[in-house]
Amino acid sequence: MQCEDAINLISARIDGELSADDRSLLEAHLSECANCRAMAEAMQLQDAQLVRAFATRRKAAAELADRVTMQLAPPRRSWWVPVTTSAAAGFLLAVLLFRPWEKAAGPSIGMPIAPASVVPIGRLDIATGPVEMRAPGSRQWERMATGAPITFGCSVRTGPNVRCELAMDDGSEVRIDEETELAVRDRRDFDLAGGQVFSCVAKNPQPFRLAAADATVTALVTRFDIRRRSDQVILAVLDGSTRLADGRAAQVVNAGQVVSFADGKITPVEGSSALDQATRWIDDILVLKGRDNPELNRRIDDLFAQIGEGKMIFLREGELKALGDRCVIPLTRYIQSERSANDETKRHEAARIVTDVAQPWCIPYLIQLLDDGDGEVRASAAAGLLRLTGHDLGRSPQQWHDQSREAGHATFVAWQQWWNANKNSYPGAATPEVSSPPSTNSAL
Amino acid sequence: MTDGQLVREVLSGRVGSYDPLVRRWAARVLAVCHARVGRGDIAEDLAQETLLRGLRALPTLNNAERFGPWLCGIAVRACLDWLKAAARTEVTMSALPASRSAELAPGKADAAAESERRDEIRQLMAEVERLPLPHRQVLMQFYYDDCTYKQIAGQLGVSAATVNLRLTQARQMLRRRLTAGKGSLVNRE
Fold it and tell me: Among all residues of chain A, which has the CA nearest to that of B81?
């Protein structure tokens, strides 16, 4: 055998494509050719390196699949789903017929198509469920698909458990929490009617302005979170600085500060975790953006930095538990994603960690896991719910484990209803502001 | 279920059956796009577009069992459109920033060894992206997904022996380029 032929066979051997005949031929050659032996070793090492290099790409592919199925999915399984199932099916059909993603295409793929009278200044980039828009001058709220354009003067609102992100064409991102209504006056000018909004303000000479009740926040380049409650406005600034004004007085609020604003008075909110708590809800959106999203990477890095070193992919139980309830969202997503489909051990470990560290705010996430295809995951979630609520709604963790997913469906739905009826008893839950829901609920 | 069965289910109104098709083909579609445009981040956008377009265009698919190659054809067309548009705006590939996909999130306490390892991986991916198209295609199909030679051959319309040959050549090219010395890598183009 010539060395040239041997190289092809070495390649095939690495790839698991070598026939038995070729294998003995190759081995005979290798036993007498030191050069090819060295080559085989080098190629083996290179293969390992390529596998490592492509690990992140394979993850990106899995996350891409998550994003696409999420975009095509009916509204997230939730307690309002049973009553709107037919509406959801209709919505899906409409999505198929009207092809809203054509409008979602970026300029590199195809320009958005908009009626001449409506100039888009941004688009709905990500949504965890149905989002509604009201056109300027209209009284009618209409459901908008991911990718749909945001226009001058429109309003956007979310119902319970729905969060979304608007990508404005100045590069700013405006994330909208559940039960929030936001009026878009211009690409850098918003009015928060109620709820909570997180803004990543892109650099631009024109100031970015967000008004909530009597307070107005203006900023140039920054990231800040603002929540409007019935009696006060809470502002948390992550980067840069903002100016908070009410027409009479003004104050600069800098990165790392959280303040509340009521009756013309600005009061600092104390506590090292105040900033963290104010912005935890955006994790829900960040995890949808995939791993190539630097903000999520930074956030996960920050998370792990707090307990030392490590990345989630290693799933070291001790380290993750030390993270406490903060790893519940990423781990829940991990369990639900294709990434964990072929790794039962890791999936079960992740479920156990979620169960152990879950706090009352995580209850909706545990309820989601009751509908998982894996009995062990369902049982873990049920155990967590029992610990947090003292209830099992007539179905023990063992039953969740032993019986099929379908057998538990009725209890799963019962749990969703239970949470809907009881969430007000769990302050700080994943539905952070239950005290002042805006009028957005009625239409959903 | 085969691709064909899933396709028929989607066409009969069970849109949810498109999900397994997306999961089954996402990596290969992404590999097609990455190989064509040479950039991971752009490839992700194009692959996403392809998977969504695939659902819309599904009624036009003649042979349901050929869903995968058909979808990859859509991906290729999307990439060619993008490349044409990129050429129109006179942004040459070499002027584009290095692939975002090859960059890993900077950790706060990375040891020097870890950072060196990342550099190596980044450099390797950059070299993969510079391979000639036929080699890049085969290598990406192989490493993005657990494809056999036969599957790759079927998709690219070549023989399994050609797949083996191209993979071998790609590996040798990578080895030569990476051992050619760091200086030459940095200075190229």
Answer: A109
Contact at CB, B30 and A43, closer than 8 angstroms: no
Give chain B positions within 8 Å (CB) of A301. Answer: 105-108
- Number of Cβ within 10 Å of residue A337's Cβ equals 18
Tell me how far apart the alpha carbons of residues A251 and A244 are, in angstroms, rounded to a whole number.
5
> Which residues in A279-401 belong to E strands, given as ranges?
none
Residue A219 maps to a domain: yes
Distances A403 to A343, A378, A413 between C-alpha atoms, Å: 21, 10, 16
Look at residue B106 and tell me if it is in a domain: no
Residue of B12, B14, B23, B32 to mutate when probing chain A, most A C-beta within 10 A:
B23
Tell me the Ramachandran region of residue A133: left when phi exceeds 0, alpha when psi lies from -120 to 50, beta otherwise: beta
Residue of B44, B164, B172 lying closest to A17 (CB–CB): B164
Phi-psi label, residue B138: left if phi above 0, alpha if psi -120 to 50, beta otherwise? alpha
Residue B158 lies in a domain: yes
The tens digit of pLDDT for each residue in A226-274 reads 998 877 889 999 888 888 887 677 788 888 888 988 887 888 887 655 6
- At A198 the three-state DSSP class reads strand
Axis crossing angle, helix A375-389 with helix A344-357, rounded to the nearest 10: 0
pTM score: 0.43
In this structure, how many other beta carbons lie within 10 angstroms of the beta carbon of residue A103? 20
Q: How far is A186 from chain B (nearest CA, A)?
A: 27
On whether both B3 and B83 belong to a single domain, the answer is yes
Residue B125 sits in the same domain as residue B72: no
DSSP character string of A229-289: -SS-EEEEEEESEEEEE-SS-EEEEETT-EEEEETTEEEEPPSTTHHHHHHGGGHHHHGGG
Residue range of the domain that includes B147? 111-189
Confidence of residue A434 (pLDDT cuts 50, 70, 90): very low
Question: Given CB atoms, is B67 within the 8 Å cutoff of chain A?
Answer: no
Nearest to B107 among A96, A101, A301 (CB): A301
| Residue from A213, A202, A205 nearest A235 by CA | A213
Same domain, B89 and B133: no
3-state class of B58 per DSSP? helix
* ipTM of model: 0.84
Owning domain of residue A417: 290-443
CA distance A294 to A62: 17
